[in-house]
Amino acid sequence: MKSIKINDVFNEKRSQDLQIKLMAGQNGTENVVKFGDLNRPGLTLSGFFDFFASDRIQIFGLGESAYLSSISDESKENIYKQFFSYQIPCCIFSHGAVPDDSFLKYADSSNVPVYVSLIGSTRLVTMLVHIFDEIFAEKVTLHGTLVDVSGIGVLLLGSSGVGKSETALELVERGHRLVADDMVTIVKTDSSLLMGKGSEMLKHHMEIRGIGIINIKEIFGIRSVRRKKRLDLIVKLEEWNPAEEYERLGLDEEFYEILGLNIPMVKIPVGPGRNIPVIIETAAFNQSLKKSGIYSARELDEKIKKWISKGE
Prior knowledge:
Blueprint: E1 4-5, H1 6-9, H2 12-18, E2 20-24, E3 32-33, E4 38-39, E5 57-60, H3 62-70, H4 73-83, E6 91-93, H5 101-110, E7 114-117, H6 121-136, E8 138-149, E9 152-157, H7 164-173, E10 177-190, E11 193-197, E12 205-208, E13 212-215, H8 216-220, E14 228-230, E15 233-239, E16 254-258, E17 261-270, H9 276-291, H10 296-311
Parallel strand pairs: 4-5, 5-6, 6-7, 9-15, 15-17
Antiparallel strand pairs: 1-3, 2-7, 8-9, 8-10, 10-11, 11-14, 12-13, 16-17
């Protein structure tokens, strides 16, 4: 089972995005989160601890904060004592609401980090859900190049030296956008969607043999790159093999499996005189038509069959 430490969840960048500040429980920032689900402990704070999802991050909205402010100190002590007897990963208070001193004292003694966020509950939960979806999602890293070709996420695969980076460079020069070169991380965000992105270290950079490392964003501008893109099409570049039969009609579709999902794939032989970037553009446009329900090869095949039938 995958898990992550609290201090890794709320790193410097995420803390800035979430506008959160640690108020107590510094010694508990090594606590482990095993689930991406969140819990609002509203009913629990009234003393009903049955079915308390204590292994989730606890979100305190305005309702929870207002309730805690309305009860007596004696009631608070009883609730806090029982609440912090569970192994809670951490607590987050929204809307900038600061918990009372007794709550912070129990959190410190129980090693439960307590954060306060200036963001409202709904937006805070939405942001946290996106963060944990990314953290706990299935992912795999592939050797290839991912390009956004007119809205279609095209992953270029092929053996080293076949020309993936050079092809992507030509596509960028033609107005398309680089997502990642060399190492592409594919993330399964839900049961039917794969997103591709590059590493923070290598983003926007590309290796071109004979030149070296170049920065696409600095050379072509910010419109030439994007951070991530949905994966729509696999293009496998191969050295031209006269003995192999390549697709001529496009009636038979091929697929490439990634994380249990089948992504449409085309094989493009690389040889002298072939304009590979233009062919990839055409493949991307054709895939866009297929997503709209238009299959050019099938339509032509049907026309030919009808023509033959009428001729008989």
